[in-house]
Structures are given as structure tokens and as C-alpha cells.
Design a protein that fits this description.
Order of helices and strands: HHHEHEHHEHHEEEH
Oligomer: single chain
Function: Catalyzes the formation of sulfite from adenosine 5'-phosphosulfate (APS) using thioredoxin as an electron donor.
Keywords: Cytoplasm, Iron, Iron-sulfur, Metal-binding, Oxidoreductase
CATH superfamily: HUPs
EC number: 1.8.4.10
CATH topology: Rossmann fold
Number of domains: 1
Pfam family, one: PAPS_reduct
Number of strands: 6
Enzyme class: oxidoreductase
Structural class: alpha/beta
Distance between the termini: 41 Å
CATH architecture: 3-Layer(aba) Sandwich
Strand content: 5-15%
Largest sheet: 6 strands, mixed
CATH class: Alpha Beta
Length: 252
Amino acid sequence: MSDVSEVSSLPWATQTSSAIGLYARWSPELDAKIAAATERLRDAAAAHGAGAVQSTSLGVEDMVVTDLIARAQLPIAIATLDTGRLHAETLALVPRIREIYGLEVAIFSPVQEAVIEFVRREGDDAMRKSIELRKACCGLRKMEPLSRMLAGRSAWITGLRREQSGARAEVAFDEDDGQGRRKLSPIADWTWAEVWAYVEKFKVPYNPLHDEFMPSIGCAPCTRAIAVGEDFRAGRWWWEESSKECGLHVKT
């Protein structure tokens, strides 16, 4: 592997291989942010009950939200999307959540017949042929399963943060998702350093690919490590000029 300072654009890059060692910095504000995020989750559980679900990507931010839910012993369901193209390291977190927290993670997968037909028609690398085909692939593998995950729900909880990208700079703690549900992002104001400081203090399990300079991890063919000067989401669909979104967090 190249020297970290040559492949990571994030702060404090040294030759340390652990994301915790690279990024974790406890801020004076973090205790208050943890308390505020926990209170937002308590309010969500009280307001929505069984109508609330955490939609987790199993990325580090979502693992922090799961940890907050577990520590507060909140009755909030947890669910994830298995697109069929995720890294093994990502999927390995599902049994880890069960082992550590005693929580089950509901898994929503794409309709297999639709995926087979799409691949037969467009090929395995359709996402690289055009933005339209990439979004069509995301639609099959993410958007359709998400619609089933959210069916009958009144609120969903995410690990979105304002620092993640320009497109997410205005992420609200609580907003309408455009489909009549509340969309809650309890750690929207946390920094990358604070996320990792929390992980370090509370020993939150995380995807080891984060140690490989992948701050944003999606499907395996569509994720790479970031380099010097690149944004958090630059490793997603790096071959295209776009907003680096699949549609999951675009209000319609």
C-alpha cells in the first residue's frame, strides 16, 4: 500500500493503518452532541413507535446510530439493503450487530428476476456505460428494496452528516422525505473526527474497509479508496461527473 499521506485526503494522515488512529479526535462539543442525538432518537421512538426504522448502510455513521439506539435500549427496528454486490466486509457486520447488541437486522434484497434480466440485457458493468444505466442499476438494487423497507413506516433514521458532501450540507435533523414520512438524521452535525472518537470510546464495530481509506462504502464495483484532495464521496462512481448520489437520499 502507498504511504497514507499519498492516498488519504482526510486530516491527521500518517502511516497508521487504523481509521481510529487516523481520524478520532474527541471535541469539547461531542458529549453534548451525543446527548442531543440520543434525545432525538428517544423522541423518534416515542412519536413513531413501531413506525420507525433505522435504514443502515452499515457504514461507520450508521454503526454509530445503531450503537446509540442500543445504548438507549430504544424499540427502533433496524434494516439494511443487500444489493447483491456488497463487499463481504460490509455484510459481515449484520451478524456482528446481532452478537454485540442482540439486535436483528432485517435485510431487503432486490427482486432477483429483475436483476437477472437487467444484467442479461445490459451486462455486469452496465453502471459504467452511462449515468442513466448506473441509476437504473441503483434503482433495481437499492430504490425498489428501500420502498419495501419503508412500506407502512412513518419515519426512517439515517446516518447522514452535513460534512459528507456539498449535496448533503443542508441535511436536517428532521424533515419530510417527500413521501409523507419523517426522515431523521440524528448525527447530522457531527464531524468525521467526532464519529471516530465515538467509535473509539464505545468500541463500535465498523467495516475494516474504512481502514483502507474508504469513508463512503457502497457496492463493491462502485467503491474505491479516496486520494489526496478528494471529497468523502469521491470514491463512489468515480468514473462519472455527478452528484455522487444513488437516489436513496434525494427528495422526490
